[in-house]
Amino acid sequence: MDGNGRWAKKRLMPRVAGHKRGMETVKTITKAANKLGIKVLTLYAFSTENWKRPQDEVKYLMKLPIDFFDKFVPELVEQGIRVKVTGDIDGLPEATQTAVNNAIRDTESGSGMILNFALNYGSRTEIVNMVQKIAKQAADHTIELKDIDEQIVSKNLMTGFLGDLSDPDLLIRTSGEERISNFLLWQIAYSELVFTPVLWPDFTSTTLEESILEYQKRDRRFGGIKK
Ligand code: FPP
Question: Backbone phi, then psi, for 80, in 5-degree steps?
Answer without folding.
Answer: 70, 20
